[in-house]
Amino acid sequence: MITVLLLAMVVLPAAGVAAQALALWFGCRRSERATVMIVALVFGAVAIAAVTLALTLLVTGRDMIDVQVGPWFATSDHAWRWHLVADRLCVPFALCAAALIGLIGALSSRYLHREPGFYRFYLLLTLFGTGVELVVLAGSLTVVFVGWELVGMASALLIAYFHDRQGPVRHGLRAFLTYRACDVGLLAGTALLADAAGSVDLSGPPAPPAPRAGWTSVLGWTGWAQVPVPGSTVSATIVALLLLLGVVGKSALVPVSGWLPRAMEGPTPSSAIFYGAISVHLGPYLLLRAHALLDAAPAARVLVVLLGLASALHATLVGRVQSDIKNALAYASMTQVGLIVAEIGLGLYPLAIVHILGHAAMRSAQILRSPSLLHDRHHLEQAMGRTLPHTGRHLERFVPVRWRLPLYRYGFEHGYLDVWLRRLRDPIAGLLRAIDHTQRRVADRLGGTRSDTTLEVTGMGQTAGTTAVSLPAARREI
Amino acid sequence: MTVSLSPLLAAVLLLVGAADLARRPRNTRRTLNTRRARARATAWTGAALAVVVVSVPLARVADSALADSGYTTVTTLATGWARWTPVATGLAGLVAVALAPVRTHAPNTFVRLLVVLATGLAATATCEPALIVPLWGLASAATWWELRSRLGPRGPARLFALHQMLGVILAALGAIVLTVCGGSGWSGTIGTTAIAAAVTARLGLLPLHLWVCGLVESAPMGLAVVFLTAPTAPMLILADGMPAPGTGLLVIGAVSALLSSLLGLVQPDARRGLSAVAVSVSGTIACGTANASPTTLAGATLAWQVYTIGVAGALMVLAATEARRGPVTRTGAGGSFARTPRLAVAFLLLGLAVAGFPATLGFASEDLLIEGTREVSALLMAAIIVATAANGATAMRWFFTGFTGRRDHIGEPDLTTRELRAVTVALTALLVGGLTPGSLVPNGPEPHLVPEPARDALHTSTTDFLPVPTRQGGDLARPGEQKCVRR
């Protein structure tokens, strides 16, 4: 029964995705109400299953429930299994995610009513939910990777939800490229961990440390499943740094944080659930799962703290000069995520867990409220007949006057991070273009043609060699 | 020599279809002729695919009957690595024909397309290099003739001819040397090097990769697709008596995978971008076959099947899109997703499947390749991981660039019924296969099929396959199935 519940938390959202995708692909007519009902039923059931699992863990006093299904595919010396766990860390996260996705789904039925992309939104929301439940309930890093990628794809496609405008499309692509570049770390870390530790399956909670008095015993609570730890410090450090790279991309830590404010181009409900509540917190969640690895790699732990603090400081400076409410909230979210990462680096795990859950609930509510807040503010100003005073400047007063202008400029330029990344990217792209150009010249030389024939040839390839045919297509040309 | 009847029958059907198309009188209205040619070619390709697909569930029964009748060298389908390859090849052919735009495909193009597809299917019918090499030569000649008739003898046609001629000659040389002189000593080294170089040319690996881009850019896309996805190179490298290609192909494959995937990110148009992805995936496949462990071989074979369906689908969807609204370029205006949602989604899913995205069949092949190469070298594994990530980024980039970003449109339609059916079949194979990859993962050659004297010299020389008893209560082998272990 417990096994079925645990599996249902992953299978039900996946079935929801399949049902909606098939209906969209084959053009089946259905109502908005039916779509919302599917999402509500799926995530309602997942929430109920999470509550049942939580009660089971409490009543039975078990540390974790471990389910392995498979092998999904195998060769003579390798097998891939679906490995899921339920423990005291993941069940609250799974419940929180299901409840928030269900609520966002219910709210969006009015917010996106009669939008052309209504069904696409719900499909991607369900896909996102599937990915999140996979990451949260994963019993091995390979399963984490599956969910991680699904979340990334859903995120990028929802940022580009308003696909007929160039801006959202560009920002969606940037988010996906950032995810993809950083996911190299997660995948490489997983593979190296399999090599160094012999497995990537989460193991049971570590033995409890010697009892400590007072609040320190609560702050040191680590009773959840952990990624395995390699024997040597060097291996542990390399694996931890690679996993941290994945975390940096997913949680928008410096220096690749630039995609997060741009991601707010998507519809407000998806911004709330992705960048206020769940998606940005998956990085800290992975770090919580890997705290034993951080214990074995002190250098990586120091880097975690530094990255977290740097992200928080950067985001709070930049966020204070934003003129757009969603951008300001994005940077506020980044600030809190940075602090959460620093807390994990400092070993304050229960504080980080409470911080994640509290921040997820509060920030998603803030983002959902943001569009109507602007209306309310305008109405209030009209009623009062004057502009409302600017609040929240208490911290600025502590900054020395001579620092204010440089800091303002730093915030205005988004910390120059985009410029630095561009300076890093441009020479690489230039080198690749030069290689490509050289290849074309060699190909032209070998083919015995002049060096500028590529475009002509392309055009001929698309017109059956008849250059008289104009390129804009007509129905009869298909 | 073992011969598989089902792919052979499918190839014969395709040749009959080609003859049927070739003998039809040329009417005055070219467009109508082309449409009719495409319809008939689709029917013939569908029939060939049906033959291969139907033979899959019947293979076990039919093979037993054939063995009982004394035909021990005749099977229904190839066993081991090549089991699902004819299905993937046939499916790629169906997609290539069904989505071929009449703008770029003349009736004669369909004749050559069916011939090239028939050679690809016939190559899966046997593991004999003496047959695979001439089939490669025939396919190259048909493709070159098409290029030459369109663009003249220079340019892409000459580039293609140079590479394929070199490849065919090297493959023939290698096969002859290995057959006559055996696989040991200097002759073995020469033969192996020649075969590895031939495979490099056929797969389009560095430095013999320049023809791929030229072919994709300038040939009719359907013909380019069936030539690219014909399993000549994997069948050659896994053919009977072929020694392990060694470290050379491993390094070439890794460099090709990495460099081409990065080059794919800076290409100015979608055709070049996808051709870079094709070269990159070919590189990972070469790594898997050259590494020659059971896991990488299984991964490479599965990756080849995903590549066959995925690259064929993505390139043909791109061709269909270009026929509707012109080239998809970086500086272009983009497209209206609302107008062509199925085209866009099909392009994205097929492209991501090739890049090994989770929830597709490509993920299983990617996992097997990474797992297998991890045991050889961390650098090799890192190259494959970076290549996979970059290929996914390229697919997503051209999805956004080509199918989104504008509100207006020129009245371009979405997938037609014929196209929708073909794309749906391809997507079903990749997505349903992604849900249940276990039955599709190749589990190695049957030990009794490996010739005893050649066993030590085969490409599996580092991994001898020995039959071991099925583990009781184990989860890796089905009852009655023999497992392979390393010695």
Key terms for this structure?
heterodimer; A: 478 residues; mainly alpha; 2 domains; two-stranded antiparallel ribbon; B: 487 residues; 17 helices; 2 strands; disordered C terminus
Number of beta strands of chain B: 2
Q: Which two chains have the most extensive interface, and how many residues on each?
A: A-B, 74 and 97 residues
What general form of chain A does the structure show?
Answer: globular
**Content of β-strand of chain B:** under 5%
Helix and strand succession of chain A? Answer: HHEEHHHHHHHHHHHHHHHH
Question: Which class best fits the helix and strand makeup of chain B?
Answer: mainly alpha
Biggest sheet of chain B, in brief?
2 strands, parallel
Helical content of chain A (DSSP H or I, runs of 4+): 55-70%
Count of distinct structural domains of chain A:
2
Order of strands across the widest beta sheet of chain B?
Answer: 1-2
The helical percent of chain B reads 55-70%
Oligomer: heterodimer
List the uncertain runs of chain B. 445-487
Estimate the mean pLDDT confidence of chain B: 86
Summarize the structure.
Chain A has 478 residues and is mostly helical.
Structure, explained:
The complex is a heterodimer of chains A (478) and B (487). Helices cover 68% and strands 5% of the residues of chain A. Chain A has helices at 2-25, 32-60, 90-111, 118-137, 141-159, 166-197, 215-219, 233-250, 259-262, 268-277, 282-289, 291-296, 298-319, 325-345, 349-384, 401-412, 417-447, 454-461; strands at residues 64-75, 78-87. In chain A, helix 2 runs antiparallel to helix 3 (90-111), helix 13 (298-319) packs antiparallel against helix 14 and helix 13 packs across helix 16. Chain A starts with a helix and ends in a 17-residue tail after the last helix. Residues 452-457 and 463-474 of chain A have low confidence and may be disordered. Chain B has 487 residues and is mostly helical. Among the domains of chain B are: 259-445, no CATH class; 449-487, no CATH class. Helices cover 67% and strands 1% of the residues of chain B. In chain B, helix 3 packs antiparallel against helix 4 (107-123), helix 3 (85-98) packs parallel to helix 13 and helix 5 packs antiparallel against helix 6 (156-181). Classes of the chains: A mainly alpha (478), B mainly alpha (487). At the A-B interface, strand 1, strand 2, helix 5, helix 6 and helix 17 of A face helix 6, helix 8, helix 11, helix 13 and helix 14 of B.
